Amino acid sequence: MRFRPCIDIHNGKVKQIVGKSLADENDFAQENFVSEQDAAWYARLYQKDGLKGGHIIQLNSADSAYYQTTKDQALAALKAYPGGLQVGGGITAENAQEYLDAGASHVIVTSYVFRNGQVYYENLKRISDTVGKGKLVLDLSCRKRDEVYYIVTDRWQKFTDVQVTKELLTELSGWCDEFLIHAVDVEGRASGIEEELAVLLGEWQGIPVTYAGGAGSMEDVRKLKELGRGRLDVTIGSALDLFGGCIPYQNVVYLE
Known about the structure:
- By secondary structure, the protein is of the alpha/beta class.
- The chain contains eight helices and 15 strands.
- The protein has one domain: Alpha-Beta Barrel (TIM Barrel).
- Helices cover about 30% and strands about 25% of the residues.
- It has a ten-stranded mixed β-sheet.
- It is globular.
């Protein structure tokens, strides 16, 4: 298990939010933390501590008045730590190269690939061909409905009809280098991990999977490692002291 750092950017600020509170209308999100530091500051910190494979997530839609300031923050972070961070949020085959040229190790994609409730294979092939399998991360962030985990898109607001299963992971792993999976119902709550999801992901053996959502203590991290059979990397956001939480950042830098 490795610690994967994060930089979530909303309305041009580095924030930690309650995941399922995010709404495009009025660019609203329930905030846990708004940083006084910019995204590049966090990128330089992660670089200093040798942390790789973290992710930058842009949380404004392309129609938002804040879209450009959020994008500028993301690009500045990538340039501050070239090759060290992944980036997601509004990535398409048309704009992916801009982020790679700015220093992203990988681009992270959800809504471009999951459309009208289904896997849009035409776009999946297009972006995989454009950036190469080795630079693509598929974001399979999900929410539970009727006791089943479904992939959600458009900044976690829209349910698809695609269930997160081991069969789906196997199928999609042929197109990408890693998976990033936010447990959206607990994202930003620091109230405990989604244990059922952790078990499901831990039973699958394939490309790297990063789990995010709900970790509020080192005990939660240990539980994730156990339930995920040591196969899952972890992102910790709101619970980390970097973002106003109680878990010391230094406790997770060298997580094993």
